[in-house]
Amino acid sequence: MSKAGNDNWKTPLGVYERSIAELRRTREEIQAEMHNLRQMQVSLGELSNLKAELEDSQVKIQTLKTDLDKTKAELITTQKIASEAQHRVADAEREANSAQKELQNLKQLMNNNESSNPQLIEIVSKLQEQLAQLAPINTASSQDDDFKRQIIQSISDLRSQVSKLSDELMLVSPATGKDYTKLRNLLADREWRKADEETLNLIVKISNRDRDGWRWLDRGEIALFPWQDLRIINRLWVEYSSGRFGFSVQKQIWQSINVANNNNFEVEKTLGDRVGWRVNNNWLKYDELTFDISASEGHLPSTVHILGVDKGRVEDRIRLLLSRRELQI
């Protein structure tokens, strides 16, 4: 029996069973291979993704490197700017300190009256030149704005002081030493009557007419009146009235008048009519004048009263005053 069983594989049934067994092993092997292939496909996909990520990382690294190089360059530039700014500020501080000392010396000279007006003006001009040399600091890069702000403010304050001193010096006559600050302030405050009265007071004092009670000028005093003072008075009136008042404004009107035979008396009356000193053929008294910016052009200062119109005809004195070269238009 046993021998018969061992020989079964040689029978058709045995062959069939063996074939089935082999097919099963083959199927299992194929399934195992397919599983391995699927695993390999997954691995290849992951490898592809990893490669893409690696390439992306390389791009990012290159970008970061470029940015880093740019940042390094900007840092070097910033360091140079900061260094230059430090030098500029140091120079500016030295110049500002020097100018400040000069300013203090100037104030001392003005207080002690130890120097003539031209010398003071020369000192102010020197100070202004020093301050002008500090201007380049204002053009520095915005990157050091915070660094230079304080010194720039100090320089600005110093410039303001020098400018103020310069303006004040322009109010002091080098010929007579008269200070026209009060007149300037009255005009700036639009106190037109008080400014006109101050103008008269200054003129009669300079001409020594306040000693004898004659508060008006004659021909000789008009001719000798210092041109520096005449120019200061006129400049202040023109400046603070925006070109409406002043001796030079009156001169322009006077030069535009045409009358027969150039009769000075007729010119005087026509001028009075145009600037509002005459109404209905009558000269106005001082209290009747219009001390307001709305007055006729050339109405102030009240030249005819400075020349004594209430004492008689003043056509010759008007012509002499308005002919002065200092009253350029």
From TrEMBL:
Transmembrane segments: none annotated. Gene3D superfamilies: 1.25.40.620, Gun4-like. It holds the Pfam family GUN4. Residues 13-116 form a coiled coil. Residues 176-309 form the GUN4-like domain. Keywords: Coiled coil. Signal peptide: none annotated. GO terms for molecular function: tetrapyrrole binding. This is GUN4 domain-containing protein. It comes from Aerosakkonema funiforme FACHB-1375.
